[in-house]
Every structure is written in structure tokens, then in C-alpha cells.
Amino acid sequence: MRTRITLECTECKNRNYNMTKDKKAHPERMETKKYCRFCKSHTLHKETK
């Protein structure tokens, strides 16, 4: 089953993206570089609770 997660910008702490992921295949927290419209640049986004 896929669960919904929220990605938060590490620079400005805004929650920008909603995604789904498979908890069985990837139990660790997700980190990816995505565009932040508030910082106006590509920054590291981490999964929040």
C-alpha cells in the first residue's frame, strides 16, 4: 500500500509537495532536490511526519 507523504524545504521550512511512497520498499525518510517557489531555487526537500 502506498502512503501519502509531505515534503518540506530545508531552507525556508515550507511544505511544498505531496507525494506517495511505498513504505515496504523504502522505509527510510525520503530526501530529494526539488524547486521551491518561495526560495526561487532548487533546494533539498525532506519527508515530514
From TrEMBL:
One of its GO terms (biological process) is translation. NCBIfam families: PRK00504.1 (NF001764), PRK00595.1 (NF001860), rpmG_bact (TIGR01023). It holds the Pfam family Ribosomal_L33. InterPro entries: Ribosomal_bL33, Ribosomal_bL33_sf, Ribosomal_zn-bd. This is Large ribosomal subunit protein bL33. The keyword Ribonucleoprotein applies. It comes from Mediterraneibacter catenae. The gene is rpmG. One of its GO terms (molecular function) is structural constituent of ribosome.
